[in-house]
């Protein structure tokens, strides 16, 4: 027998789209949804893809990746 949604919500066992374990970006505080905002692990915590790549780009600018040149001949 199906339980009516109204009764389920009254018991406090209802489902929500956000969920009780909502996680937010540690930099911009946006709600993390893996398919929409991305979800990346950082030392500071979970971050959205925009903030993750912004911080990664800043790190690369401070410490550029340099490849050695191979001389010919």
Residue share in β-strands: 5-15%
End-to-end CA span: 82 Å
The portion of residues assigned to helices is: 25-40%
Q: What is the residue-averaged pLDDT? A: 80
Structure classification = alpha+beta
Q: Give the CA-based shape.
A: elongated
Radius of gyration: 22 Å
Main sheet attributes: strand count, strand direction, barrel closure: 2 strands, antiparallel
Write the H/E string, N to C.
HEEH
Q: How many distinct beta strands?
A: 2
Order of strands across the main sheet: 1-2
- The helix count comes to 2
Unreliable runs: none
Describe the structure.
The chain has about 70 residues and is an alpha+beta fold. It has a domain at about 20-60. It is built from 2 helices and 2 strands. The chain has a two-stranded antiparallel sheet with strand order 1-2. A hairpin with a 2-residue loop joins strand 1 (about 40) and strand 2. The longest helix has 14 residues, at about 50-60. It is elongated and about 80 Å long. It starts with a helix and ends in an 11-residue tail after the last helix. The model has no long low-confidence stretch (mean pLDDT about 80).
């Amino acid at each position: 027998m199906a339980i009516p949604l109204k009764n389920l919500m009254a018991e406090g066992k209802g489902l929500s789209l956000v969920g009780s374990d909502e996680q937010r970006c540690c930099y911009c505080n946006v709600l993390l949804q893996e398919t929409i905002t991305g979800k990346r692990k950082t030392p500071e915590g979970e971050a959205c893809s925009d903030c993750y790549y912004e911080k990664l780009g800043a790190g690369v600018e401070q410490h550029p990746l340099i490849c050695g040149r191979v001389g010919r001949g």
